[in-house]
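seq:
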Amino acid sequence: MRLFGIETEYGITRDDVPEMDPVVESMELVRAHLASSFERRWDYAGEDPHEDARGFRVSGLQQDKEEDEFTERDAHRPFSFHDMKSDLVLPNGARFYNDHTHPEYSTPECRTLRDLVAHDRAGERIVHRAAQRRNKFLGGAHLRLYKNNTDFHGHSYGCHDNYLVPRSIPFPALVAGLLPFLISRQVIAGAGKVGTEAQESGWVPGTYQLSQRADFMETELGVDTMHNRPILNTRDEPHADPQKYRRLHLIIGDANMCEYATALKVGTTRLVLDLIARGALPSIELEQPVVAVKQVSRDPDMKTVIRLKDGRKLSALELQVHYCEVAHRELAGSDEESDWLLKEWDETLRSLFHDRSRLVGKLDWVTKLWLIETFMREKRIGWDDPWLASLDLEYHNVNPEQGLYLGLEAEGKSWRMTTDDGIEAAIRSGPSDTRGGVRGLCVQRFPDEIQSIQWERVQFNGGIRSRTLDMRDLFEPQEVTRCVGIFKDAQSSADALAAWTARKDKDV
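struct:
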């Protein structure tokens, strides 16, 4: 079953106050999206981050303690915890909310890379337009948003890619197949970063690395996302029928500006999941995965070798070539999107080996490095100049008049999978072939009838069981299309639910 999505936490700053309150600003930004007053409808009952995919339930997370501290610290605020979250489900099926100190945009579930990239880009525009409305209220262009993963003060925020995976695939098989891939994936999916960083020491200039998240990876496996961050997150929160599916929740990825990098990041990961499902990956075990993450990131020349448990030594590029070759052998001819991915993956790795300048405008770390090196030559400065951190940050600015990447895009110097019209369409509606589109359609058609909503369920006013749209198993494209048609034609949510239930009962 092919389904994926991206959650992006945005960096937020404000330049007209000596000390910004990120909790309030993130909340106000989300609410600035609304034309009317905020009404709390997100249903948190379906969220349980304590279930671990390794077969147990953790008693507590570090973030639980932090939330308790936040609650105590925020007791003086004139709003509740849930009001502070300001959870919104948008007409395109996406979720837009305040993740305490960062605004977060989660795309609707997507079945194709073209849809995913369009909805990821839609998120950029949605948060930027909310910032414009907030700035109008503030009386100046004071609030700024960055699609990146670091504040250059020792703190990181995430960009998580998610995949629907059959429960029948043993979790140890996912771990064995994914760890070497994710560590080496930085060479195609890294956003690039000036300097090194840690929560204890803060930011240290003087070097360039591939990934913004690598500095913050601390363990191989774990259920936490904010502390002791794992290369492979083990949270077992499927947002689907738990007997049939699991959600693979990856927190190691960077937030990409380049559409090509986003497509390759998610697309190649999806191919590797297909290989794991087939049992087609030869065993590769790294000696020190956490060390390898940082080693790979801190070597933009990609010469560093990673020691395997069997004594071999391979570079990240060689690891990627290995995965790419197996994917070609096993998956070529599967479908048009897979064939496109296989071709682009192979060509990208060849360019990284021989001439990475061909990837300017396609891979973020390459594009940013090119911009910075050009700037350094013009200004005659070195890698230890703190000016470069500001340049790094502005690469990710989502304001088209200020963002360095968006400036390159406006000049036609970046590769595009989307069109501006396609992005605007993704702002208005969700994918027509996933439950994300159904969720968005419910928000479009019957907003006043919705009592609560989450990823897998929409609860309408007036009862419980008979008034619930259950989407835990709504994944087959034909079933989604039928559901969309019913909810488009119905005069009310009650009519839509009655028709949908009748169609399902008839099939049974």
